[in-house]
Amino acid sequence: MNFSLYLPLIASILIVVVFFIVIKLCVKSLNFFHSVLACVLGLLAVIPITAVQFFIEQKNLLQASTLPAVLLKALILNGIIEESFKMILLFFLPYKKMNINSFFACGLLCGLSLACFENIVYFLSGSTSLELRFFTSVIIHTACCGLSSLFVYSIRVKKLSVSPFVWAFLLHGVYDYFAGFKLSNFFFYISFVVVLISILECRIRFLRLRGKIDKTEVVIE
Description:
This protein is an all-alpha fold. The chain has helices at 7-26, 32-58, 67-89, 100-124, 130-135, 137-156, 163-179, 190-220. The longest helix has 31 residues, at 190-220. The model has no long low-confidence stretch (mean pLDDT 90).
């Protein structure tokens, strides 16, 4: 038996389990059922995302013969489409029973579960550079879904903030654009910078929205 065939599957499961435990310990208000639901929503998002992307590719609706066209394609296929479906499914989270900390945590879990499942699919399809995908695509999916969750929560609590979702699809699209270059190309490593920016934006947008909510609660009191 060749155990190397099962390594991506084992690694993906371990990543989700470890992150699940860590985030549960860090966010005391996070409900176990809500966490599991977030992971399931991430897996479910794969279905409509794959269907729409496959349809666009099959119909050749987005032709990319120049670098600007490739960027536009990445922004639409990987940015807008993927983040939109993840964002829509996040509306199924029971926000009334959650505060911003737990909702944001669920957003991260949703993105992580999708990313890990996606990595397994890439492995089965014979994709290369999987080691780098575990360090970059997993993080970008997780961070961007976290940003989308802030957008959803801002709608739910009537403190609309569109910028988190805009950052989510822009960062995701730009990441995929640069990650599409060969490893020997300098531009490939800009994808790492994009990953770092996504983490920073998560923190900035989270603190900003939480600050707006806290101010409202103080005024009400």
